[in-house]
User: What shape does this take?
Amino acid sequence: MQKPLNGIKIIEIGSTIAAASASKQFTDFGAEVIKIELLNGGEIRRTPPFFQDIPNLETGAFHIALDTGKKSIVIDHLSNSGKEIITRICNDAQLVIIDLPVTESKKILNLLNKESGPSTVAISPHGLEGPYSNRIENEMSIFAWTTRMERHGHDGSEPLRYGPHVATIQIGATAAAVGLSIVWGHEHDGIRRDVDLSSVEALAGNVDTGYVDWVLLGTQRKSGMGRNTDNYPIGNYKCKDGYVMFAATLGPQFARLCEAIGHPELINDSRFNDPIEKSKHFEDFMEYLDPWLSNRTKKEVFKEMQQYRVMVAPVVNMSEVTDDEQAIARNSFVEIEHSQIGKTIIHGPPFKIEDSWEALPPPDFGSSTIEILTKLKYSKEEQIALFKIGAIR
Amino acid sequence: MVRQQFNKSQSLKGIRVLDFAEVWAGPFGASMLGDLGAEVIKIESFPRRSLTRPIIEDARVADGPGPAYERTTSQIQGNRNKRNIALNVKHEEGNIILRKLIENSDILIEGFAAGVIEKLGFGWEKIHNINNKINVISMPAWGVHGPYAGYVALGSGIEASVGHALTRGNNSKDIIHIPGNFITDATAPIQVVLASLISLNKRKITNKGSFIDLSQAEAFAWHLVGPLGEWILNNRETEQLGNSDKYIVPHNIYPTLDNKWIVISAENDEQWQKLCLALDKSEWSSIEHKWSTITGRLKHRNKIDNEIKKICLKQDSEQIISLIQQCGAIASPIVDAPGMFNNLQMHHRNWFKAINLPYLGERLMPGFLWNMQPDSPNYEYRTEQVGEHNEEILQELGYAKKEIVKLYNKSVIGNSYAE
Assistant: This one.
């Protein structure tokens, strides 16, 4: 099967979760991705969880899920010999995605051929230049710069991050989107482009920021999706076997919900059809909603209410997600073969387009080092010398 | 090398996109394609007002003259860099106009619940018959196929249904207090851009357009690598750890003297040493001290958190953050919107863009998700008003001015809604 990105060559440098997430979106659609790995395996191979809780560069969940189908070469990017290999690998690629400390990224970017070399996407916390460019950050501190953490507190209490690494993968996906567009652009107009992707801007510039509300309304709002007893139902509600998430406060949504629970008379009930009155009668409404919910599982609530087009969804954990009938019907999870642990399961494609996506096994650490050096015409003696000084492994 | 300069991005120049989507995820994906240089036309619902322009009791409508539906934050935020035609596609003549737009486009993005576009008479087969080169992205909450096809949700429901909600929070059994969030409205648009480009690349091979079934649930689910890994590799659910990290101490938020919260973290022994220096507690990182090793720090997590908290409560946030950063460990403010606006780095990079909005005047709107050379993204079009480009678009399709007037008279097109 010829895949959409066959013939495109991408180089990933930095061994971070963000860079691996970015190049995954190329490799699974057919691009050749060479992963230039740090000597110690880097964040992508060292981040838990690990298979059976045994730390191992090959068996971490992030490496398994996000390095699918790539080739791995391990190079000391700080040494001159290593830098020379990197430039030779990069110069016939269409795109380089790099995520190293800013000073190191800049050194490598400067070595690439600016006339005929690859387009580049450099991922960093705050961008390559400017007063904060050398600040040290991690996922949570980056997230904290973007308004989301402040808004995401529980009912207005302490700020709270999202699930670990979720924001980082979003940053990587953003790098993939702009990266693939500049590959397309280069092919069509001959202009090579350099993207300077600040992780803070990639998150702050997306649509779910609180900034726009403030600049247009002059006020700030919390998430707005927590439990609310003034306008309801919104947020998580308990049912027979867990919780469901409602977003059914507004006119037509509320009306459909009243119908779904068998109480259409509540639609025109003066306690609930006026915003001020409604805010005084949460407990009254729960006398209708609670019994209905407590007799039904979250899946039953979901399915019955969706027949009335009520915005409600089950709040589930991973065992439930992998067994979910929609996921099974759509093959939302796929099996891959791993060199040490055998068959394992990862998430399937981010979108479905016929005959285009396939997740191949992730590479063992440095498994293509010699093959790639040989292709670049490094002699056996040179390869041994590079190995001896620790520039490769 | 002297590089040619441009006033907007060119990479997707020549790609024509129809944005037939509402609310956030689809429209913002189309805007991002516009940011990259594609020519995007929004087909705005008419005479029914678009869901991206809600006028409801707690809606976010900015104060100003003119119609309220032109001042809703969701519309202004999610619709830059596109032109707008407000079209009644249920009207026979509107239907013809949509056909013509489809004939001339490379990508169509539709964000209705599964099955709705078929009812409008523009299912995939029909569109493909009109133009077999066009790529169509359908992006319902849980996708086009499967038992949940046609189900409706906001981002908060979608993220709960794929397992994110239960990974957030402070190990609380009280799930009622985990608020929903709209991360899927941010992740789906990114995948819209990728799906567009993948389908354009595929078209080079097949010479035909593709149908893309983009489930907003799946477009986000693959971000949950950690929780899925815990389940598949070790048969257990992810713990809710709040702002802490199972393997890094310190990794938390701390209150400061000026009533703010800040992030502090030291990811390894070296950063710990630097953090101790900044906190004037160098003894904590000397080899004799039980906190100098990662295993020691894991064992004494609560004590360390308490000690750092005590120090933070005696200092202003800016002062302590700057000291820790100067020494070489991690510290950042947890900013709200005005705080983000005070980010010197973003100003240095000219991230905020002064845009003149209809009825609201000049506002410093958010910048772009990436900076690019030589052709940085720009606001070629600020958020468009309903039907703002009707004439321009119809003239390009070959309609004469007189015909356009008739289309207005028959309410096939419009440039205002009944309020």
User: Anything to note?
Assistant: Chain A touches chain B through 156 residues (CB under 8 Å). Chain A has two domains: 9-208+331-388, 234-315.
